[in-house]
Amino acid sequence: MGLFGDKKKDNTEFNAFLGVGTEYWGKLDFVGTVRVDGHFEGEIITDGDLILGRKAVVTGSVTVGKLTSCGRIMGDVVVKERAVLEKTSVIDGTLNTPVLVVEKGAIIEGGITMTKAGAEATNSKVVVGDFGGEAVKPSESAEVAKTGSDNTTI
Questions:
Q1: CB-based contacts of 67: which residues, under 8 Å, 6+ apart?
Q2: What sign has the CA pseudo-torsion 12, 13, 16, 22?
Q3: Which of 71, 15, 61 is nearest to 41 (CA)?
Q4: Low-confidence winner among 16-30, 66-80, 109-123 (lowest mean pLDDT)
Q5: Is residue 94 part of a domain?
Q6: What's the sign of the alpha-carbon dihedral 77, 122, 100, 51?
Q7: Helix or strand or coil: residue 123?
Q8: Vertex 113 angle, CA 82 and 111, to 5°
Q9: What's the pLDDT tens digit per position in 45-60?
Q10: Which pLDDT does position 144 carry in this prediction?
């Protein structure tokens, strides 16, 4: 293989990168994967992947295919496939995703909605857990999913 040989295809290639110290205002609409380590204020819309580094601060609405966050988001977030919140991640707003992975230490200050892709909101389940805080009861009409610790089936 020579100097200009074929590259192996993988999912680590970025279409754009906003580094530490950069500030951007407006609308970001992209295809593929974008990594943000700076400050962004506005609207992010894509079916692709958004990666937020530890120094990233996003203020505004975010609608993405996949999210991997080590940074801070202040606003409403809709993830179509999977959201991964690393231990330094903070979301101050609502999060709507069918799959959520949360590492110990991540903070979500707001509401979480988890539904299957394309499912009606009426088919969603409310997950109740005791994390040592004040108890919050789901509404009468919400179907409650059991956590498995009560020896009952879901």
A1: 49, 50, 52, 77, 79, 82, 83, 84, 97
A2: positive
A3: 61
A4: 109-123
A5: yes
A6: negative
A7: helix
A8: 115
A9: 989 999 999 999 999 9
A10: 47
Q: Is residue 75 part of a domain?
A: yes
Q: What does the alpha-carbon distance between residue 138 and residue 128 come to, in Å, rounded to a whole number?
A: 8
Contact assessment for residue 148 and residue 128, using Cβ atoms and an 8 Å cutoff: no
In this structure, is residue 129 part of a structural domain?
no
94: containing domain: 16-119
Whole-angstrom CA distances from 20 to 35, 37, 54, 61 are 11, 5, 9, 21
144 domain residue, yes or no: no
Task: Tell me how many domains the chain contains.
Answer: 1
d(C-alpha 12, C-alpha 141), whole Å: 44
Taking only the tens place, the pLDDT of each residue in 139-152 is 554 444 444 444 44
Lowest mean pLDDT segment, chosen from 66-70, 112-116, 145-149: 145-149
pLDDT per residue as tens digits for the range 75-107: 999 999 999 999 999 999 999 999 999 999 999
Q: Taking every pair of C-alpha atoms in the chain, what is the biggest distance, in angstroms?
A: 67
